[in-house]
Automatic annotation (TrEMBL):
This is YVTN family beta-propeller protein. SUPFAM superfamilies: C-terminal (heme d1) domain of cytochrome cd1-nitrite reductase (SSF51004). InterPro entries: Haem_d1_sf (IPR011048), Host-pathogen_enzymatic-act (IPR051200), PQQ_rpt_dom (IPR002372), WD40/YVTN_repeat-like_dom_sf (IPR015943). Residues 1-26 form the signal peptide. The keyword Signal applies.
Length: 451
């Protein structure tokens, strides 16, 4: 039963009531507060998506040993009765989600005893889109290095490059591979040593390949022809780099940083230049740059913020930054644009959707649920289609960029992570693995539309 406090003058009377009704002193009921320190994670089977009617796997960590923990959604207890954390402060259990569970983010109250704390964990129920439309594409794939992150395409040379990294030095491994864009034959491969390869982009004007070393806070430049190292920037030179894009018209490489900055480099002299500092328009918000999309002709650079539902549009001539709100987006990560219409497309992991906005006004033009863990999006000007990587649902969804209508939903392998579109409309995607023995993981896939 709830007892609302209408004014401070009734505090002593209310405390006395509780003490007499329960037999407990006020000091026992309101002992020294403790901070909630545990962590709760939800997933579907094999770290997959959570769908209505499916099984939910729950894991907890960081709790006190043998601490009693309960998880509740509304009035429904989800956890086993009298569940306790183990000797390491962890727990695991599973439950079946109702068939009528609504898509979206559900608040689950996590309550502990000894000490008494409470917190809220979000359980995300994702849309389930059936596979369809594969007959319209010629699809082939090849195994690449473990832990593949991103892919880049050189239209000038007919090659693709992939960046891979697993673990941390000295036990970790990393590789950069060059493959034929038509046959997917490996033409060259190099191990960058302690500097793991994550983001990747080609600079055809200078015959180089730019790679981000996220865990070492650095970037590196390689020769495209033989993958020999041209320059390795020192560790700590770029904080948490993620994506890199090449602006051939201005001779610049732009690097997002998981932070509020985008760093800039001269692609000819390989010198670090002044970059851009992005400020969130939300009160108390912090912009965290993710994917990058470059409109080279218009001189505009786009990025989205993982921590706030916002898009940044940067004028590369004036340096002016325009921040646009992204209603309906949670933890956005992927971005691309249509230069003909001025539309900007955003993929969001937390809301499992792709939204299109007007790049000038910020007006939302469509909002399409596409899968689970929607990570990246790429626009194909040749077909007017969007290709979307849904990491948790193992799919690549194809949308009509004008309407947001789903045109196909393709098998993307385990954990599709990144994709790019070649000028003629061929899509290259990479996907990670569910463990070292996963035959569907760590692959480069070529998706070509049939005539």
């Amino acid at each position: 039963m709830a007892f609302p406090l209408r004014n401070a003058g009734r505090a002593l009377t209310l405390a006395a009531f509780f003490a007499s009704a329960s037999g407990l002193s006020a000091e026992t009921a309101f002992d020294t507060p403790a901070d909630f320190a545990g962590r709760v994670m939800f997933s579907g089977p094999e770290r997959g998506a959570i769908h209505a009617g499916g099984k939910v796997e729950v894991s907890g960590s960081g709790f006190a040993p043998q601490q009693q923990v309960s998880l509740q959604r509304g009035k429904t207890l989800l956890s086993p009765q009298d569940m306790q954390a183990d000797a390491e402060g962890g727990f695991r259990f599973a439950f079946d989600l109702p068939q009528d569970a609504a898509v979206g983010l559900h608040p689950v109250v996590v309550q502990t005893e000894g000490p008494d704390t409470a917190g809220v964990a979000e359980l995300k129920v994702s849309p389930q889109v059936p596979l369809a439309g594969a007959e319209g594409y010629d699809i082939r794939s090849a195994k690449v290095g473990p832990g593949v992150y991103q892919v880049a395409h050189s239209a000038q040379n007919g090659t693709v490059f992939v960046a891979s990294a697993v673990g941390r030095p000295p036990e970790g491994t990393s590789s950069i591979a060059k493959l034929d864009a038509g046959t997917l034959e490996v033409l060259a491969e190099v191990n960058p040593g302690d500097f793991g390869a994550f983001g990747i982009a080609v600079d055809d004007a200078n015959g180089t390949l730019w790679v981000t070393n996220t865990r070492q806070d650095a970037v590196a430049v390689y020769a495209q022809d033989d993958l020999s190292l041209v320059r390795q920037f020192e560790a700590g030179s770029v904080e948490k780099p993620r994506d890199v894009v090449i602006d051939a018209a201005r001779g610049r490489a732009y690097v997002s940083t998981h932070r509020s900055r985008i760093e800039a480099f001269d692609t000819k002299t390989l010198e670090k230049l002044d970059g851009f500092e992005l400020q969130s328009a939300e009160r108390g918000g912090q912009f965290a740059t993710m994917s990058l999309a470059l409109d080279e002709k218009a001189g505009r650079l786009y990025t989205v913020s993982l921590r706030t539902p916002e898009l940044a549009r940067i004028d590369l001539v004036s340096g002016e930054v325009k921040i646009l709100a992204l209603p309906g987006a949670k933890t956005p990560s992927g971005v691309d644009f249509d230069p003909a219409t001025g539309r900007v497309f955003v993929a969001s992991q937390g809301s499992d959707n792709v939204i299109a906005i007007d790049g000038e006004s910020g007006a939302v033009l469509f909002d399409t649920p596409v899968g689970a863990g929607t990570l990246n999006v790429a626009f194909d000007a040749a077909s007017g289609r969007l290709f979307v990587a849904n990491r948790a649902s193992d799919t690549i969804t194809v949308l009509d960029a004008a309407t947001g209508e789903i045109k196909a939903n393709l098998d993307g392998g385990s954990f599709p992570n990144h994709l790019v579109v070649a000028p003629e409309g061929t899509v290259f995607s990479v996907n990670k693995a569910r463990g070292k023995d996963d035959p569907e993981g760590d692959r480069l896939t070529r998706i070509a539309p049939k005539a």
